[in-house]
Design a protein that fits this description.
202 residues; cytoplasm; WH-like_DNA-bd_sf; RecX_HTH_1st; mainly alpha; Regulatory protein RecX; elongated
């Protein structure tokens, strides 16, 4: 039975030993190490080629080995940036209500090729995007009741702006939602050049 010392070193030594054992179990061949790392990462969640490249570089895998391993993974369809981008667009638009501009920005940060991004976000047409914007505004409309109309307009339009909706669509959708509640169109935003609108206090 392991005795804990007063300084509590026993658990630390145990973890250190476990870490050393794990390192010893890792394949020594760079290609084998790269394959093992990629499979472990892909088991957790889909990844883009760029994400895997960055992970392998952090583990000091040589670039030629990275290219060789990832090329093979693409052949086997373990990596498919187009499928990743398509699934990302569908999931983030449905779950978070993100518009094409925001989705494209997220995919760029994951290293997806611009042409692949354009094709993926192109599956969202303007009609679907506007319908989602209307749903988002309706969900938030009740929470803004009691505020001045100008503040409601700014807050709701700002919410859409942060999700990547274009200025014209955002203002039109919010204005129409407010008008449906019986407000007159006196928002003063038709000729505004400031976008996104400034934040207002909660």
């Amino acid at each position: 039975m392991t005795r804990r010392t007063e300084s509590g070193d026993a658990p630390s030594l145990s973890r250190a030993g476990a870490g050393a054992s794990q390192k010893e179990r890792e394949p020594r061949d760079p290609a084998e190490r790269a394959r093992a790392i990629c499979l472990r990462l892909l088991t957790g969640a889909p990844r883009t080629r760029q994400q895997l490249t960055e992970a392998l570089r952090k583990r000091e895998i040589p670039d030629p080995v990275i290219d060789e391993v990832l090329d093979r993974f693409e052949e086997l369809r373990f990596i498919d940036d187009a499928a990743f981008a398509g699934a990302w667009v569908e999931s983030r638009h449905h779950g978070r209500g993100l518009a094409r501009r925001a989705l494209a920005r997220e995919l760029r940060t994951k290293g997806v090729d611009p042409a692949v991004i354009e094709e993926a976000v192109g599956t969202l047409d303007s009609e679907r995007e506007e319908a989602t914007a209307r749903d988002l505004v309706q969900r938030k409309l009740r929470a803004t009741r009691g505020l001045e109309r100008d503040k409601r307009l700014r807050r709701l339009a700002g919410m859409l702006a942060r999700k990547g909706y274009p200025e014209g669509m955002a203002l039109r959708v919010v204005r129409q939602a407010l008008e449906a509640e019986g407000h007159q169109e006196e928002d003063g935003w038709e000729d505004s050049t400031a976008w996104p609108p400034p934040a207002t206090g909660q």
